Amino acid sequence: MDLNNSPRRTACVCSAPSTGRWQSKPGSFDALHAAQVFPSGNEYGIPDLLHTSADRVPAWLVPYRQRIRVNESLDDGAVHFFLDDYRFETVWNRPRKALEALRPYTTLLTPDFSLYRDWPLTLQLWNVYRNR
Hints:
Elements: E1 60-63, E2 77-80, H1 89-93, H2 95-102, E3 107-108, H3 121-131
Parallel strand pairs: 1-2, 2-3
């Protein structure tokens, strides 16, 4: 095959004005949640957690996405995220859907994305950010 004699492709130069579609992500998808910036008092921009008094200890804990018995009062317990990360990745990827499922609970613990000492610092900071 002779590359010198192959047909050339030319770039299309359009004179039409931009439609503005480049300014939004398809399906309103924002994987980094860059549109939601929270108050931060540190150089990395990791959101500050508001102080919440722990005036009572929950009677029971339930893992995220596990069904509970109907006879248990949701006010007495709390939802935890001490699970493998993939089990609660939807909390980050689809927060509105996750919050809808968590709405009946009174007490929620923060997500607990893994922090491994042998990971690069950037990945550790990323998961601290996602934990907040």
